[in-house]
Design a protein that fits this description.
Blueprint lengths: L2 H27 L4 E3 L8 E7 L4 E6 L3 E5 L5 E6 L4 E7 L4 E6 L3 E6 L5 E6 L3 E7 L5 E7 L5 E7 L4 E7 L3 E6 L5 E6 L3 E6 L4 E6 L4 E7 L3 E6 L4 E5 L4 E5 L9 E6 L6 E5 L3 E5 L5 E6 L4 E7 L2 E6 L4 E4 L1 H34 L2 H16 L1 H28 L20 H9 L1 H21 L1 H10 L4 H12 L6 H11 L6 H8 L16 H7 L7 H12 L3 H9 L4 H12 L1 H17 L2 H6 L11 H10 L4 H29 L1
Antiparallel strand pairs: 1-28, 2-3, 3-4, 4-5, 6-7, 7-8, 8-9, 10-11, 11-12, 12-13, 14-15, 15-16, 16-17, 18-19, 19-20, 20-21, 22-23, 23-24, 24-25, 26-27, 27-28
Length: 657
């Protein structure tokens, strides 16, 4: 095939790659599936109810108001209480609404008019309510504190029938589908079934504290734990399915719900994230709202939700199905895009004369040594998957506004050098750079002095037994984890019971006692002093090995010529150790650039920014602020520093050879 043919094929594959990328971006941009409903309370909402017969949406608020909305968003009626509404139970056949309130009262109202039919005062703060299908009995979960809870059963007329006391906090209470039992979710991670007389009949222990409990049609239960893991169980408490959000950070579960059939599961977290899972427990949709979600409600195949703000959103069944289809297509589109793009590049290179000749020569070499390259494929695959893929992501997304709120290609946008300008304008990075160089200079001094002196003194000892003993004593601290060492120094610096201030007090130097880690004047100096007497194990071993490796004949010749130990050290031993010195300089440089764990454990970068370093800025933006694009930019800058160190290291090896 001639040059034009290769270029034509390159154009075809590039066009196909563009089409696939366009479809993939569309699949990632389908984020507007949350439909805002026209129900404005002007308050913080807490719970929802639905009257299907009249099309009325009921919203309970944290501002002590219960509002009934017509389908067009107009108010039909409202009712006031003395506390936030916690849960609503609608019984359309009898046109009755049951509303649990934190003012200790359960209110029974008429669905059409809001007329108060009955008030049940439990004399306890109400958390959850439920009603039997025949409305002959009312279940109330209430308590007077955080660790003591009561399960109360009332007749339809408001007379108390039973009171079951527990020394744990209940996070959910529901009647069984046949009203023959009661399910309780507690803060110890247990889902318990009791009968109507309060006797336990079944129990299952889940992993973490439970935070919510809901019912799914078909005699199934849905619960959520504090780690964001949801469970679907049957009424015998057998786990039917489970899932959890896939994130690079820990989430705190708050509310869980599903559509009426239980195919789609939705999870809301304290961090204001909303996750949607399909029937295969795949996380097909993620978004972040302005407020935390407090309640989900199934209405047919749709899901309504509200939370700590003036909003009611809805997932429609059509959008749920579309998101599921697009989510399934995204991996396929990614593979096709990569294959089409690679083919386009290959044919483009084949269309260029010199490049084509180089590719043909490379192909012949690959064919000659194909067995070796085939055996290396697993190694290269693992390197690309676990090493270079993350580097590629950081390099590409350092120029985007990637964040918690913009976590798909459809919501991210290219921002150019804005992240790098932000490093300068915010000032934290510049402050961190200054502190980093101070720590780097101190680290180099500590590495090049005390470990070298210690190694030289031990090598100079006459008896091998002494050398072995002291070498062991200086290497032994290696078994102590770095975290333990940092926490030990934190105790040493404690202003009240710390060893340093106690020692100064015993010496009569009370005027020198300080809040070492809490004073901007002393915090950085205290960080630099950590590790005293600074006999680092790695540099000590490197210097010791270098000194031991020096030919004894050279040293003996110097002694015969009249050189003393000091002259031998500076004129013979130290020049021979130049390769070790250069390597340790590079390692100190790289370590000072990247490490922040000790500062995080001791001061967290404070007080103020007195001990702040760039590595800590990267960590905070990744784990706490959710500014992932900015964190990638920070990582890219630190990568440049590290690359400089690597190149210097390569240069050192060349000179050494």
């Amino acid at each position: 095939m001639n040059k034009k043919g290769f270029l034509a094929l390159a154009g075809v594959w590039a066009a196909l790659c563009g089409v696939v990328i366009g479809i993939s971006r569309y699949a990632g941009s389908v984020t507007d599936i949350l439909e805002r409903m026209p129900f404005a309370t002007g308050q913080q909402n807490s719970c929802l109810g639905w009257d299907e017969a009249a099309g009325t949406l009921l919203v309970g608020t944290y501002n002590n108001e219960l509002i009934a909305f017509a389908p067009d968003g107009t108010r039909r009626w409202s009712a006031q209480a003395r506390g936030p509404f916690r849960q609503l139970v609608v019984r359309p056949d009898s046109r009755t609404l049951y509303a649990g309130n934190e003012d200790n009262n359960l209110y029974v109202l008429h669905l059409d008019t809001g007329e108060l039919l009955l008030t049940i005062n439990t004399e306890r703060r109400i958390f959850n309510i439920d009603v039997t299908q025949d409305e002959g009995e009312i279940l109330i979960s209430a308590g007077t504190g955080t660790s003591r809870q009561n399960i109360l059963l009332y007749s339809a007329g408001g007379e108390q029938k039973s009171n079951f006391s527990y020394n744990i906090r209940m996070k959910g209470a529901l009647y069984a589908s046949d009203d023959g039992g009661i399910f309780l979710a507690d803060n110890q991670g247990e889902l318990i079934r009791i009968d109507r007389q309060g006797r336990e009949t079944n129990r299952v222990s889940l992993q973490y504290e439970l935070v919510d409990l809901a019912r799914i049609e078909g005699n199934r239960l849905l619960t959520l734990d504090k780690a964001g893991v949801y469970y679907v169980l049957d009424e015998d408490l057998n786990i039917l399915r489970r899932g959890s959000p896939v994130e690079s950070f820990a989430v705190t579960g708050r509310a869980v719900g599903s559509d009426a059939g239980g195919n789609y599961i939705v999870v809301g977290t304290e961090e204001r994230f909303l996750y949607l899972f399909d029937g295969d427990n795949r996380q097909i949709y993620t978004t972040r709202l302005d407020n935390s979600i407090t309640n989900f409600m199934p209405v047919g195949e749709s899901i309504y939700l509200t939370g700590l703000g003036d909003f009611v959103f809805r997932f429609s069944s059509t959008d749920l199905a579309l998101v599921g289809i697009l989510h399934g297509l995204k991996p396929v589109l990614g593979v096709l895009g990569a294959v089409f793009g690679l083919l386009g590049v290959v044919f483009l290179l084949l269309g260029i004369g010199r490049t084509r000749r180089g590719i043909l020569r490379a192909g012949k070499l690959l064919n000659q040594h194909k067995t070796a390259y085939i055996l290396l494929i697993p190694t290269f695959t693992l390197l690309i998957a676990f090493n270079y893929s993350s580097v590629f992501i950081a390099l590409t997304r350092a120029f985007t506004n990637w964040s918690w709120d913009r976590n798909t290609w459809g919501t991210m946008s290219f921002v150019g050098l804005d992240n790098f300008r932000l490093m300068i304008s915010e000032g934290y990075f510049l402050t961190g750079i200054k502190n980093m160089f101070i720590i780097m200079a101190a680290g180099i001094i500590k590495t090049m002095t005390i470990p070298l002196l210690t190694a030289w003194l031990i090598v100079s000892m006459k008896f091998n037994t002494q050398k072995t003993l002291f070498r062991l004593l200086f290497v032994l601290p290696m078994v102590v984890p770095g975290v333990v060492g940092a926490l030990m120094w934190k105790q040493i610096y404690d202003p009240t019971i710390g060893l340093l201030n106690q020692l100064l007090g015993r010496l009569g130097l009370e005027n020198l006692q300080q809040v070492w880690l809490g004073d901007e004047r002393w915090a950085l100096a205290a960080i630099l002093f950590v590790g005293f007497p600074f006999v680092g194990v790695l540099p000590f071993l490197v210097f010791y090995g270098g000194l031991v490796d020096i030919d004894a004949g050279i040293l003996e010749s110097a002694r015969i010529d009249g050189a003393n130990r000091v002259k031998i050290f500076f004129r013979i031993q130290l020049p021979i150790l130049s390769a070790q010195v250069k390597v340790l300089l590079i390692l100190s440089f790289i370590g000072s650039t990247q490490d922040f764990s000790g500062i995080y454990l001791l001061t967290g970068g404070g007080p103020g920014t007195s001990t702040y370093v760039p590595g800590l800025e990267l960590y905070f933006n990744t784990t706490q602020f959710g500014r992932f694009g900015y964190a990638c930019a920070l990582g890219l800058v630190l990568f440049v520093f590290t690359m400089i160190g690597t190149l210097l290291n390569m240069k050192i090896k060349t000179n050494s050879d």
